[in-house]
Design brief:
Sulfur carrier protein ThiS; single chain; two-stranded antiparallel ribbon; Sulfur_Carrier/Prot_Modifier; Mopterin_synth/thiamin_S_b; ThiS/MoaD-like; alpha+beta
Length: 87
């Protein structure tokens, strides 16, 4: 199973969390996570069948562009919302 690392801002907590999820693609990971834990994460990351514009998903440190990106067994997947602000 892959491990998804989630920042606090996406899970409503005070620190990063990790959860193990089965799936062969990024899309399958988020669907399986939704089945087990509810749709909130999936809905925060996916819109109209694509990764949202301001969300970055990395598999083993490599950025992915789509939900069909392969996820090796025991991979680490990170979800990072884009930061903005400043002057």
């Amino acid at each position: 199973m892959a491990t998804i690392k989630l920042p606090a801002v996406l899970v409503g907590g005070s620190s990063t969390s990790e959860v193990e999820v089965a799936g062969e693609t990024v899309g399958e990971l988020f669907e399986n996570h939704a089945d087990d834990h509810g749709p909130e994460l999936r809905d925060s990351v996916i819109e109209d069948g694509e990764i949202k514009e301001f969300i970055n998903v990395y598999v083993e440190g490599t950025p992915v562009d789509g939900l069909d990106a392969e996820v090796p067994d025991d991979a680490q997947v990170r979800v990072i919302p884009a930061a903005s602000g400043g002057q």
